[in-house]
């Protein structure tokens, strides 16, 4: 790896995390296309490299949310209880079922596009009474599913669940720290699972350690800065940002999936 590649990874992690951490989305969701298209990390190694980024970058935003007194409550524990077993399942599916980048991008787009459009629609429509909050059992079930999806494309799980909870009217000040805590925990579990699979399975499965650490170092700084900004941003703007991010990344994946493989 050249120093230019390392610097690009560091700056990408920094900028992306500043934008995404206020809405509880790990920067890995946008770092993924950068790794595939700019840094040329092979598949499926790009997924554990992304999870490694989450592990290194996560404490920055979490430390700031804890200092703000926002990292308290049962939501984070509930999300972690579901997403950790889900991400282990997702890692196994990623390695043995969809190792190629083309199918991988289509799966990611199929998940993020409807979530992003749904959240944008609920935010832009005239103000109406929010639906009843989701039950603990429903949130736990969704956490398992989104954890598996997160394990498949290397973003943990909280980044997928965040738009769902926001669409049901839960405040972003509650969602963001809980989703990032779940993403951090599931990324630890997911990275460990990929490490075990790399010992027993052939192919590019192990993470690219140096690049993942450099991207994570940028994300550590950017996540702290983004979490510091979050209490000063309006709720509606945060919901629109989250919906826009999810929709934009889905469109990007669809465009990339239509390009011929190299």
Automatic annotation (TrEMBL):
Top-level taxon of origin: Bacteria
UniProt-annotated location(s): Cell membrane; Membrane
Listed transmembrane segments: 7-33, 45-63, 75-97, 103-120, 140-166, 178-199, 206-225, 237-255
UniProt membrane topology term: Multi-pass membrane protein
Record-linked Pfam families: TauE (PF01925)
Keywords: Cell membrane, Membrane, Transmembrane, Transmembrane helix
Family statement: Belongs to the 4-toluene sulfonate uptake permease (TSUP) (TC 2.A.102) family.
Record protein name field: Probable membrane transporter protein
Organism name: Paractinoplanes pyxinae
Organism classification: Bacteria, Bacillati, Actinomycetota, Actinomycetes, Micromonosporales
């Amino acid at each position: 790896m050249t120093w230019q590649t390392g610097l690009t990874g560091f700056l990408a992690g920094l900028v992306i995390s500043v934008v995404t951490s206020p809405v509880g989305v790990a920067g890995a969701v946008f770092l993924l296309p950068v790794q595939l298209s700019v840094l040329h990390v092979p598949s499926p190694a790009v997924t554990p490299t992304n999870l490694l980024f989450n592990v290194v970058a996560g404490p920055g935003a979490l430390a700031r949310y804890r200092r703000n007194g926002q990292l308290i409550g049962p939501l984070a524990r509930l999300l972690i209880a579901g997403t950790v077993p889900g991400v282990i399942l997702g890692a196994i599916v990623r390695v043995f079922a969809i190792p190629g980048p083309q199918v991988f991008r289509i799966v990611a787009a199929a998940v993020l596009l409807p979530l992003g459009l749904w959240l944008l629609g609920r935010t832009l429509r005239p103000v109406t009474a929010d639906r009843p909050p989701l039950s603990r059992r429903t949130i736990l079930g969704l956490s398992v599913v989104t954890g598996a999806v997160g394990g498949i494309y290397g973003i943990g799980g909280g980044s997928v669940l965040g738009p769902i909870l926001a669409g049901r009217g839960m405040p972003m000040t509650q969602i963001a720290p809980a989703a990032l805590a779940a993403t951090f925990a599931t990324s630890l579990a997911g990275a460990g699972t990929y490490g075990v699979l790399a010992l027993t399975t052939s192919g590019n499965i192990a993470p690219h350690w140096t690049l993942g650490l450099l991207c994570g170092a940028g994300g550590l700084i950017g996540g702290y800065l983004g979490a510091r900004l979050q209490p000063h941003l309006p709720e509606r703007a945060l919901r629109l940002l989250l919906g826009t991010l999810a929709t934009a990344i889905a469109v990007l994946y669809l465009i990339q999936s239509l390009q011929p493989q190299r």
